[in-house]
Each structure stands twice: as C-alpha cells, then as structure tokens.
Amino acid sequence: MKTPIILVNYKIYNEISGSRGLELAKICQEVSKKTGVNIAIAPQMIDLFYIAEKISIPVFSQHVDNIKPGSGTGKTTLEGIRATKAVGTLINHSENRLKIADIENIVTKCKELGLISVVCTNNLAVSKAVAMFNPDFIAVEPPELIGGDISVTDADPDIVKNTVKVIRDISPKTKVLCGAGVKNGKDIKKAIELGAEGVLLASGVTKAKNPREVLEDLAKGAI
Amino acid sequence: MKTPIILVNYKIYNEISGSRGLELAKICQEVSKKTGVNIAIAPQMIDLFYIAEKISIPVFSQHVDNIKPGSGTGKTTLEGIRATKAVGTLINHSENRLKIADIENIVTKCKELGLISVVCTNNLAVSKAVAMFNPDFIAVEPPELIGGDISVTDADPDIVKNTVKVIRDISPKTKVLCGAGVKNGKDIKKAIELGAEGVLLASGVTKAKNPREVLEDLAKGAI
Amino acid sequence: MKTPIILVNYKIYNEISGSRGLELAKICQEVSKKTGVNIAIAPQMIDLFYIAEKISIPVFSQHVDNIKPGSGTGKTTLEGIRATKAVGTLINHSENRLKIADIENIVTKCKELGLISVVCTNNLAVSKAVAMFNPDFIAVEPPELIGGDISVTDADPDIVKNTVKVIRDISPKTKVLCGAGVKNGKDIKKAIELGAEGVLLASGVTKAKNPREVLEDLAKGAI
Amino acid sequence: MKTPIILVNYKIYNEISGSRGLELAKICQEVSKKTGVNIAIAPQMIDLFYIAEKISIPVFSQHVDNIKPGSGTGKTTLEGIRATKAVGTLINHSENRLKIADIENIVTKCKELGLISVVCTNNLAVSKAVAMFNPDFIAVEPPELIGGDISVTDADPDIVKNTVKVIRDISPKTKVLCGAGVKNGKDIKKAIELGAEGVLLASGVTKAKNPREVLEDLAKGAI
C-alpha cells in the first residue's frame, strides 16, 4: 500500500448512503489520479461490494467480526471481504471496539489471506500493545478529539510523534496513521512531519459541501 | 409482500460469498419467475447493495442496528438499507439477537420508512411479545432445531400452529413464517398446512449441491 | 410483595459503596418499620449478599445474566441470587438492557425459583410486550427522564396511566411501578393516583444529603 | 502479593453459591495457614463483600467493568471492589473478554487505586500485548484446554515457558500464572519449574469431592 495515504471512513452518514456513496468514491478516485496521492475509502458495510466492484482505488471494510464462514447471520468475515475485492479492513474503530483476542486473531488471519489490517487505537499504551500483533497499519485517534474541530495534529502532536517512535521499535513494518479532527491539507502536512504515513478521516470529507475541493486540498498537503 | 414466501438466508457461508452470492440470487429469481412462487433472499451484509441492484426479487438485509445515520463505523441503518433498494430486514435472528427496546424501535421505524420487518423469535412467549410491535412478519425458529436435519414442521408442528393462532389474535396483520431444519417441498407444504405463510431457511439451499433443484422442489411444495 | 413499594436502586454511586451501602440499607429498614411502607433496595452487585444477610427488608439484585450455574466467570445466576436471600431481581434496566429471549427465559425461571421479577421498560409498546411474560412487576422508565429533575409523574403522567391500563388487560397479576426523576412524596402520591403500585428510584435517595428525610417524605406520600 | 500463589476462581458453580462459598473460603484459608502457601480466591460477584469481610486470605473480584462510579445499574467498579476489601480483580477472563482499550484503562486505574491486576490471556501474542500495560499478573490459559482433563503444563508446556520468557523482557515486574486443566500438586510443581509463579484454577477445587485434600496437594506441589 503506497503511502502517504488518505483513508476516508464513510461511517454511516446520510450523505454517503446509496448512490451518493459511489459518487464520492469516484471523486476520491479522480483526485487520486490527478494528484498521484493514494486515497482509499471505507464505505458503509452494506455498500462494500457494490462500490468495490466499480472503482479501482483501494477499498476497506469498516469492520470485521472474528468469525469463520458458516452460520453468523448479519456478521462479516475476512473471507467475505476478500471476495468483494476490498483490500483490507479497519479493525477496532472507536465506534466498534473489539476484544483483544479477536484483534489478534483477525490481524493474524489478514496476513494469511493477504488483506491489509488497519487497527485503530485510542492512546499510546494501546498502540504499543497492538504493535505486538504486527498489523500493517495502526491508526491512532484520541477519542475525545474524534468528530471535533481541532485536528489531533494540533491538539496533541505528541501522541502522533510518540506513537510513530515506539511503533518503529516494536514493529518496524507497521505504519502509523493518525486521525480525529483532521480536515485539511495543513493537518495532513503536519501529520507527515510528525512521522505519520497518512490520515484516517471521516466527516471532514463526507459532510463537506464540496468534497472534491477538500480532497484536493488534503492531497496537496500530502505531497 | 406476496405469500407464501420462501425466504433464503445466505448467512455467511463460503458458498455464497463474492460472485457466487449473485449467481444464487439469479437462480432464486429464475425459479421464482418459472413457478410464480415468491422467493426472497437475505445476502451477506457486505454484498447487500451489490446484489440488490442486479435482481428484481425481494432482497432483505440480514441485520440492522438500532442507530441513526451519522457516526457508527461498521454499523447498518434502516436508511442505508432502504437506499440499496432492499425491501426490508431480518431482525433479531438467533445468531444476532437484539435488545427488546431496539426491536421495538426498529419495527416502528420500518413502518415509517416503508420497509418490511421480519422479526425472528425462539418460542411462543417471545412471539407473543414481539406481536405487540405489529411487525410484518414473525419467523419462529426453535434454536435447538436450527441447522439440524429435522424440519420444525416435523419436530414441533405445534409451535407453528400455536404461533399462527396466537399471533392472529394479537396482531392480525402479522404473518408467520417458520424455520429451522426446513429443507424441501414436503416441509414447506406442511408449514402452510399448519397456517404459516412461508419459510425461512438457509443451509438447505445455500449448501445444496444443486440449489435450483432444491428451490424448485420448495416452490412446488408452496403452490 | 406488599405494595405500594419504594424500590431504591443503589446503582454504582460512590455514596453507597462499602459500608455506606449497609448504612443506607439500615436507614431504609428503619423508615419502613416506622412508617409501615414497604421499602426495598437493590444494592451494588458485589455487595448483594453482604447487605442481604444483615437486613430484613426485601433486597433485589440489580441485574442477572441468562446463564446456568457452571462456567461463567463474572456472571450472575438466579440460583446465586436466591442463595443470598435476596427476594428477586431487576431485569433489563435501561443501563443494562437484555435481549428479548433472555428476558423471557429469566422471568420464567424466576417463577420456578420463587424469585420476584421486576422488568424495566422504556415505553408503552415494550411494556405490553414484556407483559406477555407475566412478570411480577413492570417498572416503566422513559429513558429521557432518567436522572433528570422532573418526575415522570409530572413530565409524562399518561405513560404511567396507560401502562397501568394496558398491563391490567394483558397480565392482570403484573403490578406497575414507575420511575425516572422521582424524588419526593408528592411524586409517589401522584404515581399511586395514576394507578402505579410504587416507584423505582435511585439518585433521589442515594445522593440525598439526608436520605432518611427523603425516605420519610416518600413513605408519607405512599400512605 | 507473595508467590507462588494458588488462585481459586469460583466461577458460578452451584457448589460455591451461598454459604458454601464461605465454607470453601475458610478451607482455603486453613490450608494456606497450615502450609504457608499463598492461596487466594475469586468468589461469585454477588458474594464478594460477604466473603471478603469474613476471611483474611486475598480475595479477588472475578470481573470489573471499565466504568466510573455513578449510573451503571448492575455494573462493577474498581472503587466498589476496593471498598469490599478485595485486593484486586481478574480482568479479561476467557468467559468475560474485554475490549483492549478497557483492559488498558482498568490496569492503569488498578495502579492508582492500589489494586492487583490479573489479566487473563489466551496465547503468546495476546500476553505480549497485555504486558505493555504492565499488569501485576498475566494468567495465560489456552481456551481449548479450559475445563478439560489435561493440564496446560502437560498439554502445552511451551506456552508457559515462552510466556514467562517474553513477559520478563517486556514487563519484568509482571508475574505469570498459568491455568486450564490444572488439578493437582504435580501440575503446579511443573508450572513453577516452567517459570510460572502460580496457577489459576477453578473446577479442580470447586467441584472436588474433598476440596481440602486437593488444596493440600496443590500447596505441597507449590512448596
């Protein structure tokens, strides 16, 4: 996965449901092509395959259950995600926290299946713990800043810098993203200066009046 | 929703992930057209929109969360389901049980949004309780028979007959489906004789060597 | 269980942990004896047996899991509750909602074990559903009023009156309590006028500067 | 906390509910005094304070929620546990797994409150992750061996040896316990030879015909 990366989490906003989710995906794809910056998306669960089959930028699942194919009505497996052509999955997002044994098992299975694991964490200690599983990405997001107006890169630059530093020691191949309040090119530029290899963001793009402009500004900051 | 109905729950079997889920959906559609029997499907969550946009038989979500559009990474809203053109959702499946206040709220919201609610229950008492919410369908499935070899219509015909009877008194517009072990035309014929307006089944179709044959046999039983 | 009843839910407030929980229990007992009004308590889970063995007014568990004795580290069984001499349990409190099949199973098992079931509900529809299980008590508490300053008896008297009315038709032996914002004798008097047989309250007593005074006022309202 | 330690998890077996739980606690205490080996217990949640006030050997909670004192009917706080005179708590038992952020927060808060944290883990990778939080104890229990007849020390001695080794590097002050299938003095002797500082066990004691004999045999193995 080429970095720096801008990973857009659609969450379950009205603004991205149905055909609007696909429209936003196409805008992400166009801006990515135009700027050369890697932009990835995590659409609503029920739109995953619908969108993944129609675009060529990387698509992630927002969530996965630690469950094998079989029974499990309403659940989602890594095998199912892979079959949609999605490239990986968010794991343990603050809105969908997982048990530690489940995170470990999912990250391990991602490696077997060739899927990219992006484990979300809330602080330095949890990032260090998760680093023991050697995921592809750790996305650190202080919960108190999620959905807020101040970017983590301004509100708590140390958490980004320190996460990058300690993860490098524990799991050198794991890349660090940061998130929470990230909204523009300035924020992502700062994130990269702090050592992150990209950002995870949501409302800054999905609820923007003009998502294309926001994405172009973000991409500019990432170059 | 025309009845009798054969509602095929895909669960998360390997046999229905990726493009194979769409193939099975097309077979269901063909058998439905050929026989005139209403066949509906509940695909994997992540395949919902992908499949729903490509076929014309009724598509249901396997699950929904009692959550509003907005934050909620990895969750599923009724609004999101409606935007995929799915016609409704399973609620409270035995593999994804819900809290009672959530069931009530989801059923109420289904009515507002014009979605069909299919609430799964495990016994007569719970069916009676759920009937108070006036869902479109109650699908009674004794948990000990789910995934087994003996159809609920043979193993416990009384639960079907009694559920039909008591639901008629409490909520006359609610239709009763039955499930657990249902596998062939004989089973669905018996279900209809017992007063049910259809069946909910999974492995009998999804894991069949020849799903078309199984579906045609089921449809024959439903006529 | 004699009614009207004042059922004091200790929740997990600092004010009632350790020996202070027992002190409050003794005050409840003294006021009950003095006034002749039935006052019951639901202490912290970990204090249940400690308090139950030392007082003679009715003690309830705050919660129970739908699980059999055996494995289940950290869980609570009805059999375990009964062995502490507690007389029953709250079920499905708004801070600890249960799945519908679990509520049904717990209420049924309460009858077998001779324990008193107090099922909490959030609105009229859920109360009607729960009435199908014929619990001993239904305690209706509109969630938006819990912990607030305005008593449900003032903010939404109709929900109390209507719950009493519909429950009487469905399950004549089930008694109705109301809760949320209940704080003084005036509130409980109103509750009884609306047809309730008592109140469920928490912070109004547990966080009171002088719990004895509050309890005496409540008891006065209940006479 | 003196080691080696024999930590008896009561779970929710019928054999330890009510007064029988106290009886077993007294036997543990007598054997501990007689042999000089540290024996600790984790009683049923609802019996915690009842037992803790009556005995002097260390008492642990079986579980704790990551929640502050206040609202939270049916939950358990560290503050509440401390007020019962219990010395600490099991965290993340295989029958009550926690989210990773909750484990981190609970372990951190245990240190602030002077409580002993015993975090249960299922394999080497999860043990390493948890070691990042520097708990007082890590109790590794391969889930497939829990409740079985073969002790982890025979079935998988390497997991014990390797856990001890890696934890020593990551968090030198964290002590390792092992569990699953542990039943007699021979098992605990082997555990100590493998580097563990004690065992966590349940049915081997709680369901024994003669718990005193079993405990004496265990204590002998620990000397």
TrEMBL record, chains A, B, C, D:
CDD domains per UniProt: TIM
InterPro entries in the record: Aldolase_TIM (IPR013785), TIM_sf (IPR035990), Triosephosphate_isomerase (IPR000652), Triosephosphate_isomerase_arc (IPR022891)
Annotated PROSITE patterns: TIM_2 (PS51440)
Compartments reported by the entry: Cytoplasm
Function field: Involved in the gluconeogenesis. Catalyzes stereospecifically the conversion of dihydroxyacetone phosphate (DHAP) to D-glyceraldehyde-3-phosphate (G3P).
Main location: cytoplasm
Organism of provenance: Candidatus Methanofastidiosum methylothiophilum
Protein name listed in UniProt: Triosephosphate isomerase
Catalytic activity: D-glyceraldehyde 3-phosphate = dihydroxyacetone phosphate
